[in-house]
Amino acid sequence: MINFARQYLGTDYVWGGTTPRQGFDCSGYIQYVYHKFNIKIPRTTAHYPSLYGNKVSINDAQVGDLIIFTGTNPKIRKPGHAGIITKVGDGKLSFIHSSSSKKHFGVSETDYYKSGYPKRFLTVVRM
């Protein structure tokens, strides 16, 4: 799954986007990748932790799990962004996502602990 997901590194971020040609928003990208592996997933990030999958602690995260974050305002503790975990272990955690950030625009892979995402972390979901 991760090798497939990485094929789209550099694809543009497009709000509402669901295909490589069109571009992806975060949930469109995740849905596209999971669909390839016959895993049904909701279209919007808001539904990931409440309707689908099982919540697990970040310490129990596995490659392929979803990592869920707030939107850009970490004070609003509702899901607003997500990625697919690509690496775990020995104090490392990376995830692939489609970001609207100027620093990480489009599909990119991010080192969780070397980013601003820990303050936005909500949960990990295993589908």
From TrEMBL:
<dbReference type="InterPro" id="IPR038765">
    <property type="entry name" value="Papain-like_cys_pep_sf"/>
</dbReference>
<feature type="domain" description="NlpC/P60">
    <location>
        <begin position="1"/>
        <end position="127"/>
    </location>
</feature>
<dbReference type="GO" id="GO:0006508">
    <property type="term" value="P:proteolysis"/>
</dbReference>
<dbReference type="InterPro" id="IPR051202">
    <property type="entry name" value="Peptidase_C40"/>
</dbReference>
<protein>
    <submittedName>
        <fullName>NlpC/P60 family protein</fullName>
    </submittedName>
</protein>
<dbReference type="GO" id="GO:0008234">
    <property type="term" value="F:cysteine-type peptidase activity"/>
</dbReference>
<keyword id="KW-0645">Protease</keyword>
<dbReference type="InterPro" id="IPR000064">
    <property type="entry name" value="NLP_P60_dom"/>
</dbReference>
<comment type="similarity">
    <text>Belongs to the peptidase C40 family.</text>
</comment>
<keyword id="KW-0788">Thiol protease</keyword>
<keyword id="KW-0378">Hydrolase</keyword>
<dbReference type="Pfam" id="PF00877">
    <property type="entry name" value="NLPC_P60"/>
</dbReference>
